């Protein structure tokens, strides 16, 4: 039986709500928690013809910087490398347009109003 820490449970809750927010906006989920040697993709979504790689960040408070600011250059590079790996292993998606979004949440992880969706948050 898998046991999750409270931090992991909160992270899973944030990712699930982020996915719901995106699905309500018309996107569809291609993958969740895609892991490879290069890194992890929290969500891979499809927005029409576009493949959207999504980093979900949650912070209980912004004392040490907000959730969006925590997606720094090294984190962006890991997400980009993981996205390249994903596309290598899903060749039918490789020629589609791609973008990198961030969904940042602060405060109550169960409150959809706490979530900010930043489209095209960074580029490769």
From TrEMBL:
PANTHER family for the chain: UPF0102 PROTEIN YRAN (PTHR34039:SF1)
Homology family: Belongs to the UPF0102 family.
Lineage of the species this protein comes from: Bacteria, Pseudomonadati, Pseudomonadota, Gammaproteobacteria, Pseudomonadales
Pfam families for the chain: UPF0102
Entries under InterPro entries matching the protein: Restrct_endonuc-II-like (IPR011335), tRNA_endonuc-like_dom_sf (IPR011856), UPF0102_YraN-like (IPR003509)
Protein name: UPF0102 protein NBRC116187_13850
Cross-referenced HAMAP family: UPF0102 (MF_00048)
